[in-house]
Amino acid sequence: MTAPAAPAAPDQPAPEPAGPVLSASGLHVTFAGRGGRAARAVDGVDLEIRPGEIVALVGESGCGKSTLARALLGLVRPTSGQVAYHGRPLDYRSRELKRFRERAQLVLQDPSGSLNPRHTVYDAVAEGRRIHNGATPDEQERVAEALSRAGLRPPERFLLRYPHELSGGQRQRVVIAGALILDPEVIVADEPVASLDASVRGEILRLLMRLRDDFGLAALVVTHDLGLAWNIADRIAVMYLGRVVETGTVEEVLSAPRHPYTRALLSVLPEAGQEPQVLAGEPPDPTRIPGGCRFHARCPVLASGRAEAAGVAERCRTEDPGPLPAGGAADAACHWARAQAAGG
Amino acid sequence: MSAAEAPAAGAPASRRGLAWARRRRALAGYARAYAANRGGMAGLAALLLIAAAALAAPLFIGPGDLSITDAPGGRFDPPGAGAPLGTDAYGRSVLDLVVWGARISLTVGFLAAFVSVALGTLVGVTAGHFGGWAGNVLMRVTDWFAVLPALVMAVALAAVMTRSTLTIIIAIGVTAWPATARVVRAQTLAVEARPFIERARALGGGHAHVMLRHVLPNVMPVVLAQTTLLVAEAIMMEATLAFLGLGDPATVSWGGIIQDARTAGAISSGIWWYMVPPGVAIAVVSLAFTMCGRTLESVLNPRLRERQ
């Protein structure tokens, strides 16, 4: 079979232009809920991940960021819209999907659960390569190389360990090594350090950044932690109730947030140095997305009357600010922020 | 470079060796946990004894001893010097019959349990993995088999097919699997919910990869315990079928001996030594397998072990 070799050729020149490795356009993912109420977990998202770039996807729990991450990897099929890999829509036939998954990898939150307890480190790391290449004679060298790239040195010491004999940070490195053995172009990491000790977090984050710098790896890091996003990401996308409400470079978004939701998130960071702003109203429910701006019921700007003063309060309640385009420019899906920008 | 090559060249042998050492250590741990259970050890001892007797039977039971026409003893000799458990209607030693019968009973028990566990595991893993439409259809089929009275089904199958040991094995095998299928499906669902399944899928693993590399090794302990429990059930079923006259008439089995005793009028004439020994043998072997199965279950399932 020449099938695996032939499509590799058109894949190779594709990364040269700075087009996105992985992109979503108009992506909707709806889950059938109990009692006939559908949960719109992802509700119209455009997002791009370019080569050699770490994008942080930030939002509170239940906002659909994990679903978006899984949809980008083809693990969840979108209800509408599409995911594109190097500009080509993702093909959900199993053979095409398998080829795509050689290039895009997933790192999960809980490293203890994401390793099969009955597999050794060697088996866990070699798994991806065995799936795509079968058992090759150089398998052991590659496993050792992937382990040392993931920072487990000397690799020989870890090959025959079982997951329960490793620390949490080591397990997460094993998971990352299992992704690296396939030389992926993009890694989607869902809360990669949320279950790790603070001391280990830094190491794993530095590893991700080094992989970007040394190997040009693109990554989407899903997190609820803005401080983490600040530390490692190039660009940031803030998600609220299934929609990206603010995007831009990390500096743009975190030093000059436009959307009231981003401001509220930032205000509760200890280093923010301002009065923490606790959001009022009920927590968001993807089965009942409010009309108008989806944030208006909890929006402190609207509640304090500043939106009224800017003359946009009515639009906040009735008009959806619409999804943000995937392009690089900093933008926020907020009538008030747009009015401010136009006015000042 | 040479430093990197040295472990790569030397490692495969030691890697396999180390993996085996680990496996041995894990097995030793299980063996210690098993040995701590007295019921399990008693069951195991009984089984080993019976299996040894069944295997060694041809050494001390000649073909003439079991012949209907030229057996050494007289008709219905009570237990005594010549025959420790007396003789049957044809002058055969009942002890010889029971020992010989163990060969058929154990063979049928093991093979039938294997057939039904293999079938149940296949259906259970498939139904649990695919879920949805296909899984539902499979489980409805399982339900259908589960509500069929197993004995009636086995009698019907044994009556339709030719009378042979193989028929009995198939008849028991196809009626006893629904319980295994349900247990395995439940375990499969539990395993499939764990993140390493999602990781395997994200790595590009297909259905076969997920089922064989991840689900099956994790449901294996349950399957093993289930097998041991099913052997007891299969032996009882075989005895029942043989007692109902559906066994292979050319072979000696425990159920068959009791059936012969009944037709020879042993019950009304008080010839207890013709019926009791095979009955006791059935009870002892079933009990021994059940004790082994329960102990294995508690050793291999850490959640049960903690409770003790």
UniProtKB/TrEMBL annotation, chain A:
UniProtKB keywords: ATP-binding, Nucleotide-binding, Transport
Signal peptide positions (record): none
Keyword Nucleotide-binding: yes
KW Zinc (keyword) present: no
Organism field: Streptomonospora mangrovi
GO biological process assignments: peptide transport; transmembrane transport
Pfam family, one: oligo_HPY
Recorded superkingdom: Bacteria
Disordered: region residues: 1-22
Domain ABC transporter: 22-266
Family: Belongs to the ABC transporter superfamily.
Alphabetized SMART domains for the sequence: AAA
A GO MF term: ATP hydrolysis activity
Protein name: ABC transporter ATP-binding protein
Automatic annotation (TrEMBL), chain B:
Chief place where the protein resides: membrane
Subcellular location(s) of the protein: Cell membrane; Membrane
Alphabetical list of Pfam families matching this protein: BPD_transp_1
CDD domains in alphabetical order: TM_PBP2
Keyword line: Membrane, Transmembrane, Transmembrane helix, Transport
Domain ABC transmembrane type-1 as annotated: residue spans: 102-293
Single GO BP term: transmembrane transport
Segments passing through the bilayer: 41-61, 104-125, 137-160, 166-184, 219-244, 271-293
GO cellular component: plasma membrane
Signal peptide (residue range): none
Family: Belongs to the binding-protein-dependent transport system permease family.
Protein known as: ABC transporter permease
Source organism (scientific name): Streptomonospora mangrovi
